[in-house]
Design brief:
348 residues, alpha+beta, 4-stranded antiparallel beta sheet, 7 helices
Length: 348
């Protein structure tokens, strides 16, 4: 709003660069333009202030489609007052000369005019459009239709209003209809999600099955390798036992041969020793025989007294050591008998 400074009987007004000011005294226009600064008498002044900047108006209205479904259109209209004198003549933009505030609400009146006009053009379009088409393609079509309608509207043109642009944010159906329309898509998305979940589960099961098969195949392979290992170990053990048996047989044969050789050598040695002992015995016997023959030859031809002496000598050689001698008649008789036998043997 304009900046007004009050003095006794006078007021000073300083306008804004985006506000059109019109100062009238009676039927005469004293000041008119944008960004004015002037003094005036509040008792005789009629001042109008028209904003000339771009303004945005949020528009929200209901409409009905061709299939009798209620929709809500949310849009924003950007406009400006292109002809301030015309707008000031058609709408009440008068301000209090002392306070600088609008006496009425011209912007609200202007907003209602624009909203109703935009709603009219959008409703005419939606009345010929089905709900699904309006929801799918309605935003750009409604924006174009409302823009063209507002710019070509005669009432707005006669009021000095220029539409800069229109933005349609959304076209929404009733909540229950929107929920019903979203249900198939939601169900389809849920079905796709369930399919993906089931596919992931199936893939996980397939992976688990492959893992189990790989583990089973690994176990089978390990069992086959263990079997081959056991078979190989058995063959190695059999070969080792065979080799040990062959070595033991060779060792036994060698031991037997060695024992046989030792036995033969022992037998030969025993035989040689026996032959040597036999030869020694023979020689000893031969020597004894020769000695005996020599003794016999030596005593042959001796008289009885010599032979008795020899017999006594031989008897003395066979008697034990005598510490004390006790001669009894029996001893003499036995001795004499022995001497007689010896002598008889010597004579033979």
């Amino acid at each position: 709003m304009a900046d007004i400074t009050r003095k006794p009987f006078l007021c000073h007004l300083r306008g804004r660069p985006t506000a059109y000011l019109r100062h009238q005294r009676g039927t005469e226009v004293a000041h008119e333009g944008v960004g004015l600064v002037f003094w005036y008498r509040p008792r005789t002044a009629v001042i109008s202030e028209v904003p000339v900047d771009d303004r945005e108006l949020a528009v929200l209205f209901h409409a009905r489609t061709s299939d009798f479904q209620d929709v809500v259109v949310q849009a924003t209209v950007t406009y400006r007052i292109a002809d301030p004198p015309l707008a000031a003549a058609r709408l009440d933009f008068g301000i209090d000369p002392e306070l600088g505030t609008w006496r009425e609400k011209p912007l609200d009146q202007l907003a209602g005019m624009i909203t109703e006009t935009a709603q009219q053009y959008a409703a005419d379009l939606l009345a010929r459009t089905p709900l699904t088409t309006a929801l799918a393609e309605g935003v750009p079509v409604i924006r174009q239709r409302v823009t063209e309608g507002l710019r070509s509207d005669a009432r707005l043109g006669q009021t000095g209003i220029a539409v800069v642009g229109v933005r349609v944010a959304a076209v929404r159906p009733a909540p229950d209809v929107e929920k019903a329309l979203c249900t198939p898509t939601r169900e389809q998305i849920q079905t796709e999600a369930d399919r993906a979940t089931y596919g992931r589960r199936a893939l996980a099961v397939e992976q688990e099955r492959r893992i189990a098969e790989n583990e089973l195949q690994s176990k089978i392979e390990l069992a086959a390798r263990a079997e081959r290992l056991v078979t190989q170990e058995g063959a190695n053990e059999q070969r080792r036992m065979t080799e040990q048996a062959a070595a033991a047989r060779i060792t036994a044969e060698a031991e037997a041969q060695r024992a046989q050789t030792a036995a033969r050598a022992q037998a030969d040695r025993v035989r040689v020793e026996a032959a040597a002992r036999a030869e020694a015995v023979r020689l000893v016997g031969q020597a004894e025989a020769d000695a005996e023959a020599a003794r016999v030859a030596a005593v042959t031809g001796l008289d009885t007294s010599a032979m008795v002496a020899l017999a006594v000598r031989d008897l003395a050689g066979h008697l034990p050591a005598i510490g004390a001698l006790t001669i009894t008649p029996d001893m003499i008789t036995e001795t004499l008998a022995r001497l007689g036998r010896v002598a008889a043997d010597g004579l033979r």
